């Protein structure tokens, strides 16, 4: 099925939706309503799942649904009625006439069942569902309930097709509950729900990325009053204190400040094309990714992008299993109502993943990309606003949550690889650019306003000053055969990074002088190391990577690849290894070092220490606060052939390693589709020393810059130490 066919069948679709809702209302009556849909939100949270009093038993028996599943049906039908209530309000244009309190209540009703205070007895919680129904049925029903939650977003976007097929899955599952072979029937229903609609879902997702006519969020940003909180409730996202306080803070910022904040971001994007020698000709769209609450900045950015000839595309972070990437959120999104809920369902695709389905999805992807290849040519790349400051999340690894089998792990790695290669045929990595910038959210604490100002300062440091300082580091590094990095105190790092040999030092360089363009803030020099000869131990006592906390993360490298790994998150070593393999190595058996860099942004480091937020800084900023090592692909993935130059005119030649060089002969072995930076902060850093041709050049000694021309970087550190005494 194609998207056009969906749109052409609007009448039939509306009839399917109507029939599904009729049956859901019948189930609600048959099994006994949980409560009145218009009831107060606190009642929903307190009485919804698992705490409902027994409904009319006669009605339950009359429904034909086995008694053990009636509460699940009661709760789920009540939830779907609430979603339909929201859908009707949006369709009838009622949201603008609702009071702010009514909008808040509606939002609370839709999300309260997965909030921490309700989650223990929520069918979205696999632990609770498995306890109620056993492992297989519990996992199936928890998946179905979670999948239905995507209908919240679809209700606000008026995506009746997506709502209907999810409800039809639910009704098929309910109908199977009385079967003797119910597990087999439900498994098949889930599989074909994913498989049959894979093409149309992929088409919609791709268009959201490249077609500005998919403008749900853009229309809200450009047309609503962004000075008032109420527009937040039109987005179909959970709205927390973070978003409310952020809008209140943004409201008080002068228009010229908003313009300047946006300009730092859009200028970085524009400069990125020049820095990376990527042609801007023919580019028509920019994909904006951001966190809810920053709409004033995004609106200013849209106006600035339009002056460059770029129209925005903004898509929502995935809300259904087939489009998700683990627990990560990519697109526009708000604060999670419950990060443990997201984590519990990160591998729900294990319920249906097999090679046949992956092949079908790849075939569908090629069909979609081919159909829209002309539109794809105008895609310029993503422009991302990241956030930091949320309460750090240390997940609980639940045995009841679905996990990929060993076979599925391999299928997952292969699918990600083939998907990436296929997309690169239609949107080549060397034909686009990007930019990323980060700002704090109010959850960071009472000093939010000060930290926001400090972040602006970090994001707008003097590029000319850093360009000269970083060139001093590069000049020293270019003389080396390898670099040795050691930790101090509790940090056990002792690693040797092998460097390739320069053939023409007067015209070539190994390290990029990274300033504030695609990667804001400035403050690093980086290279793609030679794998052969790179060996040793990388250790950090505590680090947050992709929203997950790692304690005593330790990676051992041989010839540039991970040979062993551990952490101390869990008591059992096998749990620690499984956690790293899943969330850092993305199910690969090993990964190479794709990047070695030295961060120079001591101002950012001081900000982290001063406000005790170092553990909350995003990788984007944290990587600038010490040496860092990326596992996975190099920074130049699929753009190795483009010639790029440092400000001094030298060509950057260390763009590949022994893995990525295979793109010329065995491309399926060249890339890993991940790149995660791990930083050693200055307070855990010992020395960084360059060795080569009888020379020994010390760049940093016990966490301080000692190389001539770089010692000004210590001023921020020394000033902070004096203030702390």
Characterization of this structure:
The structure is a single chain. Helix 16 packs across helix 17. The termini are far apart. It contains 27 helices and 20 strands. The chain has an 8-stranded antiparallel beta sheet. Strands 1, 2, 3, 4 and 5 form a 5-stranded parallel beta sheet that branches. Helix 17 links the parallel strand 1 and strand 2.
What's the gist of this structure?
The chain is 44% helix and 16% strand.
Task: Name its key features.
725 residues, alpha+beta, 16% strand, eight-stranded antiparallel beta sheet, 3 domains, five-stranded parallel beta sheet, 27 helices
- How much of the polypeptide forms β-strand, as a percent range? 15-25%
Level of helix content?
40-55%
Report the mean per-residue pLDDT as an integer: 93
Would you identify the regions where 5 or more consecutive residues have pLDDT less than 50? 35-60
Overall geometry comes to globular
- What class would the helix/strand composition place it in? alpha+beta
Strand order of the largest sheet: 13-12-11-7-6-18-19-20
- Report the major sheet: 8 strands, antiparallel
Distance between the termini: 68 Å
- Supply the number of structural domains: 3
Q: Taking Cα atoms only, what radius of gyration do you get, to the nearest Å?
A: 26 Å
Number of strands: 20
Number of DSSP helical runs: 27
């Amino acid at each position: 099925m194609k998207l056009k066919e969906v749109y052409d069948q609007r009448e039939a679709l509306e009839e399917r939706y109507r029939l599904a809702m009729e049956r859901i209302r019948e189930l609600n009556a048959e099994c006994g309503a949980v409560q009145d849909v218009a009831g107060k939100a606190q009642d929903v949270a307190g009485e919804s799942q698992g705490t409902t009093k027994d409904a009319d038993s006669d009605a339950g028996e009359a429904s034909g649904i086995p008694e053990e599943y009636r509460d699940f049906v009661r709760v789920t039908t009540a939830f779907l009625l609430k979603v339909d209530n929201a859908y009707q309000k949006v369709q009838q244009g009622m949201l603008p006439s609702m009071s702010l309190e009514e909008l808040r209540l509606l939002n609370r009703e839709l999300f309260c069942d997965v909030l921490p205070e309700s989650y223990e007895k929520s069918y979205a919680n696999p632990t609770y569902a498995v306890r109620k129904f056993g492992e297989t049925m519990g996992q199936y029903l928890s998946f179905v309930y979670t999948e239905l939650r995507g209908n919240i977003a679809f209700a606000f976007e008026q995506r009746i097709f997506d709502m209907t097929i999810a409800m039809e899955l639910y009704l098929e599952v309910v109908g199977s509950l009385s079967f003797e072979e119910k597990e087999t029937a439900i498994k098949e229903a889930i599989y074909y729900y994913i498989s049959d609609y894979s093409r149309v879902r992929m088409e919609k997702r791709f268009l959201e990325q490249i077609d500005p006519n998919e403008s749900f969020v853009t229309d809200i940003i450009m047309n609503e009053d962004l000075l008032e909180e109420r527009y937040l409730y039109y987005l179909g996202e959970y709205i927390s204190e973070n978003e409310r306080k952020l809008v209140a803070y943004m409201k008080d910022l002068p228009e010229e400040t908003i313009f300047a904040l946006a300009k730092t971001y859009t200028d970085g994007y524009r400069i990125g094309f020049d820095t990376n020698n990527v042609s801007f000709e023919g580019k028509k769209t920019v994909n904006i990714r951001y966190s809810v609450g920053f709409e004033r900045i995004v609106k200013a950015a849209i106006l600035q992008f339009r002056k460059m000839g770029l129209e925005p595309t903004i898509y929502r972070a995935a809300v259904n299993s087939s489009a998700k990437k683990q627990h990560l959120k990519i697109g526009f999104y708000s604060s999670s109502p419950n990060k443990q809920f997201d984590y519990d369902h990160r591998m729900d695709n294990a319920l249906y993943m097999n090679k046949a389905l992956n092949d079908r999805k790849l075939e569908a992807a090629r069909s979609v990309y081919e159909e829209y290849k002309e539109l794809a040519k105008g895609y310029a790349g993503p422009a991302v606003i990241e956030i930091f400051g949320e309460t750090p999340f240390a997940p609980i690894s639940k045995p009841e949550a679905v996990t990929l089998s060993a076979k599925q792990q391999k299928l997952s790695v292969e699918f990600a690889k083939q998907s990436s290669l296929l997309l690169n045929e239609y949107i080549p990595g060397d034909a686009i650019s990007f930019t990323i910038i980060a700002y704090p959210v109010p959850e960071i604490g009472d000093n939010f306003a000060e930290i926001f100002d400090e972040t602006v300062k970090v994001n707008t440091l003097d590029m000319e000053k850093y360009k000269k300082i970083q060139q001093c580091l590069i000049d020293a590094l270019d003389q080396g055969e390898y670099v040795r990095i050691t930790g101090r105190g509790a940090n056990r790092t002792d690693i040797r990074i092998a460097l390739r040999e320069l053939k023409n030092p007067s015209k070539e360089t190994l390290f990029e002088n990274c300033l504030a363009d695609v990667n804001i803030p400035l403050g690093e020099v980086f290279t793609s190391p030679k794998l052969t000869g790179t060996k040793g131990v990388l250790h950090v006592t505590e680090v947050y990577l992709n929203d997950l906390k790692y304690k005593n993360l330790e990676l051992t490298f041989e010839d540039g690849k991970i040979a062993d790994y551990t952490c101390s998150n869990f008591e059992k070593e096998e749990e620690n290894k499984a956690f790293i393999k899943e969330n850092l190595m993305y199910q690969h058996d090993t990964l190479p070092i794709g990047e070695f860099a030295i961060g120079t942004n001591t101002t950012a480091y001081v900000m982290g220490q001063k406000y005790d937020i170092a553990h909350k800084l995003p990788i984007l900023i944290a990587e600038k606060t010490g040496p860092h090592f990326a596992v996975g692909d190099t920074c130049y993935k699929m753009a190795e052939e483009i010639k790029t130059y440092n400000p001094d005119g030298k060509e950057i030649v260390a763009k590949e390693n022994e893995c990525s060089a295979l793109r010329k002969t065995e491309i399926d072995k060249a890339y890993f589709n991940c790149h995660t930076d791990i930083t050693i902060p200055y307070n855990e850093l010992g020395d960084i020393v360059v060795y080569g041709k009888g020379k020994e050049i010390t760049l940093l000694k016990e966490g301080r810059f000692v190389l001539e021309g770089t010692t000004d970087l210590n001023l921020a550190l020394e000033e902070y130490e004096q203030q702390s005494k």
